[in-house]
Records
---
Amino acid sequence: MQKSLASPHTTRSTCPYCGVGCGVEVSVAADGITLCGDQHHPANFGRLCSKGAALADTLDHEGRLLHPLVNGQRASWDEALDRVADGFKKIIAEHGPDAVAFYVSGQLLTEDYYVANKLMKGFIGSANIDTNSRLCMSTAVAAHKRAFGADAVPVCYEDIEAADLVVIVGSNYAWAHPVLYQRLAAAKKARPSMQVVVVDPRRTATCDIADLHLAIAPGADAYLFNGLLHFLRREDALDLAYVEAHVEGFAAAFEAARAVSSIPKVAQVCGVAETQLSEFFQMFARTERTVTIFSQGINQSSSGVDKANAIINVHLATGRIGRPGMGPFSVTGQPNAMGGREVGGLANQLAAHLDFSDAASIDLVARFWDAPHMAQAPGLKAVDMFQAIAAGKIKAVWIMGTNPVVSMPDADRVRAALLDCELVVVSDCVQHTDTTACADILLPAAGWGEKDGTVTNSERRISRQRSFMPTAGEAKPDWWIITQVAQRMGFAAAFSYAKPAQIFSEHALLSGFENAGKRAFDISALTKLSDVKYDALQPVQWPLNNVAPNGTQRLFADGKFYTPNGKARMVAVAPQLPAVTVDTDFPLVLNTGRIRDQWHTMTRTGKVPRLNTHEFEPFVQIHAADAQFHQLQDGGLARLTSRHGSMLARVQVSEDQRHGSVFVPMHWNDAFAKLARVDALVAPITDPISGQPESKHTPVRVEPYKPVWQGFVLSRTRLELADASYCASSWGVGYWRHEIAGETLPDNWRSWVKNAWHGSGDWQEYSDAAMGRYRAACLNEGKLDAVFFIASDQRLPEREWVGNLFGKAVLDTADMGALLAARPRKGVASDTGRTVCACFGIGEKTIRQAIQKHGLNSVEAVGQVLKAGTGCGSCVPEIRRIVSPLQVS
Ligand code: SF4
């Protein structure tokens, strides 16, 4: 693994994965790079989750895009940049500025985002720049603007710890925002009177600390919070004095909530027991310090903005906002989704939290930039943008740091649109993704550890992401690539930045430009930072100006909002269920989401063996009753089909799943599995206000997929197993693991194997055609290079034991005998079970055995005996479930 050879040093930076924005401390030494959580960073105080803790293992150059490529051929930077600039200029000249688009990413740093937005909206003259953050939090942006007059998150992380009641809605917080979850879990442990309610159709790891789990019917959240508003009024639990002084729209919102308001009716439509609903409502009514956390379960909906406003409504009506331990809290998915919001990364926003709703805002930005071609109207939001590409209206698109062929809904149509598009430019760190495969021009971008700038986390905290290693190959920072193209398009004067600090300074200056307290986003105190001060910038929360020179922990403490009259707005919400419902052809609801140890499309976390052991295949989780009805077997394969596409996945039967719903992770893609892009199934239906897709509710059917043969291959090199109809590949320690299945039996397995494996070596094999079994192993100088196990059914040996043989310097005769017999040697453990603790590689079977052997009865006791759960802590909820099955009412 290639690591930096720079002189030893320690650098403080920020984790590039989720919106928690944890600080990391990176130590570079001659023998490699190590990292740990930054004890001083206020987001995490030293904690890291499994993904963050494995960051040092992602820094090699394996799979990196190292040079510019034009039509698949290596090109110089000058050549590639000229081709991008000329291509965009030509299409703009022929078809106008709206014929081009940028699709950017919450992975970009704020400085990258700023110049991309400035180029498109101020100089090209179109607002066709949208971001993958559209898919995760544009709903919260719209709801904040409706309620507060600004896209401003009211609360801070400390409020979660200070609350007496934390309601978590539509979020598997334990896996999606692990360190924030750990902070909450620690606070609850220290103060057991704190109560936690989880509102989610699935029973997730987050329920580990829940006092109450409301397994709500998919999409019914607005009914729940409207019902709560009505209940609070009836119980005299509203703060009408606060409403009178600081809120408008109460009467209309309350009237709308009356439509479905009695406990029996709300319980019926939400699909929960009346007693549970009543318990939740009473908890909320009596608990002043309440934080309501919401995330994708709310946002990714065709009526998500209304749902978010229904949540905000109850906080406004109770005056539970702007004070310690209370408020509605949208947690963002991506590391810099918030930074993107600040600079106008969404097609309907302008920079500095301005938008297109009034001419004065457009004029303000145009004057500040001295922009020659200022966009005058919102551009196309992500789903519309890709549909415009498909329709040929957008003829050139530049995709930066994201993988829409995997993550966009109706993903097959997105791929087809890109393949037909006249000019597709992709800048990315990674060479082979589903999206780079569609590119005409590939530009190598600097990766984490190489690039330098700022990010903003979910609590409005700006932190530095600092470089600590040289860039790979010819990779360049995104801001440099964008400004070079801008200069070649004729905008040299406005894009002559020499370093990110200059861009940040301009961004800070714009935030305060003609602001005078009118806009929430104001970091004017950070204007004109010297290079030294920019480099040393400590994590700080905006607003940050002459009124609040040290930043602002919590907003709206004075009851003043960013609306024309200073009052917050309650919104009359008429709840709607999802746009498309199940029917006899598509009887189950598909819900998508994250798993514990993977990030987005796995381009980084997929490289780390220990992050691939928790879940190594695409899977579909289904309730036992549904599995039985649809004739699906636990561990078997299934085909999922919607009106838009289909995929294959391994079946996991689970009581955690709500009857009628299935869950599939969002991560798998063509780079790791065949036919496993779940977004190919998701309908391109969006919220009419935010444009965010309804990724949590797609009607599907799930049928058994019955291959003629199945098996697995472990191999030191990655194999292209094109003849397998199902193939999921993942990194193990020292080998690649391929889970495979096929629909047609080859004439000869030996030929099939030789066709798949191109290396030399000594082969030994076992074949039983009558039983449909074939096994082969290849040795090189006594060392195991590859093994193939094929069977007509699922009776295959444990991969753990076989994988361990790759660690042996020489396999002896007994090892080979065991391999071909598919049984471990006497005294060798066959299997430790599915990995639960990624930090220490502890499997479920090992934990169960230790519990039995030592009579362990707590997570702490398991940790003492096995160390499991004592590293990053991400696996603690699973260990607790093994020790004592979940006890949530
Ligand atoms: Fe990174 Fe995990 Fe922290 Fe998110 S919670 S920022 S993924 S370490």
Note: The first strand starts at residue 9 and ends at 14.
---
Amino acid sequence: MEDNFIIELKNISKKFGDEVVLDDINLRIKDGEFITFLGPSGCGKTTTLRIIAGFLEADGGQVLFDGKDINSLPPHKRQVNTIFQRYQLFQHLNVYENIAFGLRNKKVNGKKLKEKEISKKVKEMLALVNLKGFERRDVTLLSGGQQQRVAIARALAVDPKILLLDEPLAALDLKLRKDMQVELKNIQKRLGITFIFVTHDQQEALSMSDTVVVMNEGKIQQIGKPIDIYNEPKNAFVADFIGESNILDGVMLDDYKAKFSGAVFQCLDKGFAVNEKVDIVIRPEDVDIVPIQEGSIKGTITSNTFKGIHFEMIVDIQNFKWMIQTTDYYPVGSEIGIEIEPDAIHVMKKSEYSGLYGDYSSFSDELEHLSDVEAEEE
Ligand code: ATP
């Protein structure tokens, strides 16, 4: 059977001033697929998403939906809805009204929905995002994670065929982020609709997606299943970007002194501000396993796979799953100590997320979109 492509991008290009932001993007997205645009800041992920949503027009090329050109279709006529990193909930409306918002403008067979139907749908959506009983809550008093759940419920309530998710988990802390990754994946599986997800986080992309699209400087570098992108990177950029690395949140306490995973380590990096937040990159083969009492940090082995030359272990350390490669065998469940030599600690500046919404993805965009949503006649 032939694959059914819900979205096709053909030779899409986009410039802002003299800057080529998208350079001949070609992509086919299958119906029901969880596809992720992965790449560094500024590579064109959000721009691609906005062109699919209809918020932005490409300079050249075609966007097809179910095989039909939708270049001139306005956002509210596209069966697409978007979730942003900042939840952009309507602050003056409670949870129920936020989720009901799009439904109040939806028409089925030319008729508006009755309150009973709206209420049923809101309840169904709240159950889907694990917020049963939250109808009357004030959205400004919810936690970040709960607000994001309401945003997901609101976006899904109008039954879009495609959900666009622009770094939706970036504002959540690590533990919550991991939980939400699993939940979002489950929601997508349950609903069977297409999710197009944007992230700069390789682990997030690899663990959630059916297909990963690696982008850099406005070009697609590689399209493939997570396992293929990881094992067979097409070029140096992908190899480097997807390399086997533990990437941890850290702080530079001083020159040559980094703190991460609750411990302080000597490193070879300098020139950061005191207490500057950084990314710490550690290759799985550069971690030394020592007796538990001798380690700067300790963890528990949760999986161990023999890879031919070495063992590849997943070690839980403070809610972060480290990948560690070693030629010695340690059984699953063992508690181990960990040491890392200074030259194995790579300190990177945190990437900046300025301008994600800037002046080109405003609240009013979504408001306008939501208030205009109309269901296709059944
Ligand atoms: P990030 O993860 O930082 O959001 P991204 O991969 O999503 O990055 P885009 O937001 O698509 O990148 O931006 C790609 C480039 O286009 C950037 O250099 C950005 O500054 C520029 N850009 C995007 N929108 C506009 C705009 N409306 N006007 C001018 N430049 C823009």
Note: The first helix runs from residue 45 to 53.
---
Amino acid sequence: MPEPYPRTVVVLAAGEGKRMKSSLPKVLHPLLGRTLVGHVLNAAAPLDAVRTLVVVGHGADQVRTHLAGIAPGATAVHQAEQHGTGHAVRIAMEAAPEATGTVVVLNGDVPLLRPETVGELVAAHESEGAAATVLAAEVPDPAGLGRIVRDATGRLEQIVEQRDATPAQLGIREINAGIYAFDAIRLRDVLGKLSTDNDQGEEYLTDVFELLVSAGEPVGVHLAADHTETLGCNDRVELAALRRLLRDRVNERWMRAGVSLLDPGTTWIDVTVALDRDAVVDQNTQLRGGSVVGSGAVVGPDVTLVDTVVGPGATVLRSHAVGAEVGPGASVGPYAYLRPDARLAERAKVGTFVEVKNTEIGAGSKVPHLTYVGDATIGEHSNIGAASVFVNYDGVQKHRTVIGSHARTGADNMFVAPVEVGDGAYTAAGSVIIENVPAGAMGVARARQRNIEGWVLKRRAGTAAAQAAERAQGASAVVPSASEGEEIHGTAESVGGTHRAGDTATE
Ligand code: UD1
Ligand code: CA
């Protein structure tokens, strides 16, 4: 059995959006995780439309490419010249001559509209058997918007644009949101009768209402409960205002779902992000794209997560992460940078001034300080000494470093990839590891130290350093002869049986 009201969605997105002053078409501007047109398509998604038509014009190629990514089922309809909203819908209807049932028209620049509100508009329209129903709102400031003009009995008479309105009509605060439901057949009928006899010389979609009313067709007005849903976006000041409204809406939803937001005013969560109960988001934090924050995790203050998954009980403090995965109970920051495919297993730690890219860090392993880890695999419960660099790039290609489990690498190591450090192996501080270190071995790759006794007294005589040295040596009164000063007192046993502080002491 065919649907009684098969639905066609038409999104108007051909306008230039002059006042945005942008090389990006207006409907492609981003707003907390979606473009403007992405939000509008999302609001229409529950309608289960048999077809979705997006009227494109300005920046058509860019808009088409975007649509292919976010709404592959939608069809772009080209409006080469923008002769008004009525003209745009006429072109869309010509592209779908078979359309019957309900046509839902949405302005591409009204992104805060809730799916529920669109659903209510369409339900009201269909249950009334109306020829057309407009979504209206009572707004504090109707400037620039089309006004809903009702007759003495309260019935819709016409929709009049600000620039065509009489002084009395300008006082009306009930406005046209630019969202409509139409009966396809009757819409097609009147679209052919639109004139361009108005201040802009355009075909106004809004004139459809007056035409239907004078033909005796039933038309309706559906009033939005929350007028902020109907706000349009014409410039970047309005876009910023919409962003704040949407932020507050999203934040409220998460708080009611059991997430603690310590400072909602500085917390920006994309509509595409998911948070579990008892997650805590501290101030000045942005959660973007497909990011997920698990139960009991603490994120912030001062954190940006883009497409990053934070497991339950993990903490991320003053850090930036893109495309990363932070395992349960793991800890990141302060001041860490996780780049794509940085993956921390359970209880792993990435500490301060540490950058990690395309690397797996095993359960309980730590990279605590001042380190770059790129293209590596680190096993479980290993510790990477401070100030180390995983030297992954030979100038042409990237190579991997593999560190085993329970390894302890010394401070200030270079791991020149490809290279491996085995399970339970150690490396000495200051080593440049270019050869594999077998399991359980101590890898030492640094020059031996030599002390030239008395060098300062001889070569920097009279300086404060020399005087300090003299004072220090006063008690033992060791004054080297000139020849002794050049002797080398290096020791061959500096790394040996005893565990030396500094080799691996940066846990
Ligand atoms: C329109 C309504 C107005 C309403 C307001 C709500 C008309 C005549 N007026 O005014 O009553 O209060 O929306 O936001 O409809 N577009 C096209 N092709 C065109 C012209 C416009 O695709 O030829 C698209 C624009 O890209 C935009 C939408 O239609 O997404 C609305 O057009 P816009 O020029 O912004 O209309 P408003 O003046 O805001
Ligand atoms: Ca507009």
Note: The domain at 259-443 is CATH 2.160.10.10 (UDP N-Acetylglucosamine Acyltransferase; domain 1).
---
Amino acid sequence: MESTNFIHDIIDEELSSGKVSGVYTRFPPEPNGYLHIGHAKSIVLNFGTAIKYGGKCNLRFDDTNPAKEDIEYIESIKEDVLWLGFKWDALYFASDYFDKLYDFAIRLIKQGDAYVCDLTAEEIKLYRGTLTEGGKNSPYRNRSIEENLELFTQMKGGKFKEGQRVLRAKIDMSSPNLNMRDPVLYRILYKSHHNTGDKWCIYPTYDYTHPLSDAIEGITHSICTLEFEDHRPLYNWIVEKCGFINGPRQIEFARLNITNTIMSKRFLKRLVDEKQVDGWDDPRMPTLCGIRKRGYPPEAVRDFCERIGVAKGNSEVDEGFLEHCVRENLNLSCQRAMAVINPIKVVIKNYPQDKTELLNFATNPQSKDSGVRQIEFCSELYIDADDFSLNPPPKYFRLTKGGMVRLKGAYIIKCEDVITANDGNVECLICSYFPDSKSGEDTSGIKVKGVLHWVNAKKGRNMDIVTFSSLITAQSGGQLQVNPQSRAVFKNAVVEPYLFQCPDGMSFQFLRTGYFIKDCNKFTEIVKLKDTFNK
Ligand code: ATP
Ligand code: MG
């Protein structure tokens, strides 16, 4: 996959023509929820662009709506950006600019570019018109500058009720662009703000705040998602009317959508509130704290965001591609180990009962300098129930009654007898081994097709292993539904003693199974071994 980034093409051209002399970007989340993978695309784009051009990137909280915002979210957003590996040049809050924004509003009023309007929200909507019909001027549109200044000061002073008056830009009620039909700049809200407390009872709107925050910070490229394309004329109007020359340029790109993944904060919040998941950081969630807990390495997430490219047209990325990037990363970085999810006992009757033997086990054949670790072999082992069949289909290379396989890094064994319980379930396999078939020094001349992973039954430790499947499943008719079986816990799993002792947060490739991370005395699945991504 060759990645492309049209924004970098634009910047290259601007730099070479001298239109800009440097690059300053910002990542501007609203602190009203946890970040998801879609935000990672924006983070990588904004911070990555600054790094690429030797510029700067700010983290700015767009906190103009005190009703929906919370400090909890601010902390989590900072943590997520740092986790992805980026450092902001400056940290700002749009609310840091409330005084300046107020002064700019006064300036607009004095220029005759803004007015106080007494229409209700309902009436404003009616007067605005539609896509096919022009709007109507507000009866308050021609108030004198003095009256507007007086009323706006009174709004700030708490003289009116919520919804009683707003400040509007005076642009053009007949503009084909609805955003230019005298948009609201300030509304009255008697709400405490996490940053400014009760200092303000009027709050600037997003459309007014965003361009000015960018301009105040000296942002050169204000990168945002496509839904803001229609807001660009208003963005430019505000920047120009407030006297900025060579102000920031807004560039829109397509949001990231991933198949079978819903990233809307509202939907994710519902899953949390309804307890369909353990919380925002449930490993099945597409939130950044969720995939961090899942064990996705930040390098893999960055790699994914870069490889999908940046384009102007909306599209959907296969969920398998994110997993592919994670798998590629883990394949190179993870140690190999053995764990048996559904154990059945193997007793090797011709191996001395009190003997143990240390065997060499390659920790990661994909990485040249990773070396070997020793594992202990003995007469009682576990293999996975899936690796044995009493009635094998054709071309079954795993173990069968009378059949032979190699145990990874150890010996070839033959299944001589099968002990079943009353219910017919296989309880134990009685096997023999070939002493001259040891891995690396095999002189037995026996050829087998299957190689199975195993765990020493005397030294292995019981630990829960948790696997996942998609949290969301596509239903017929295209409807998406929450999958009630998206998590499976294997209580009988057995792991190498090495895995039992390793610290929390360490990731492994379990041979023939998948990638797992240790978390609170259990192993949870990061990604399956098998690649479903179709290049
Ligand atoms: P949501 O719609 O999920 O609630 P949002 O757009 O309201 O997200 P913000 O906090 O406003 O969330 O987003 C911060 C930045 O991240 C914005 O610049 C926004 O455009 C960008 N962003 C949000 N979702 C995506 C996405 N799916 N793909 C790319 N960028 C995104
Ligand atoms: Mg938003």
Note: Residues 28-30, 38-39, 41-42, 224-225, 255-256, 263-265 surround adenosine-5'-triphosphate (ligand 1) (CB under 6 Å).
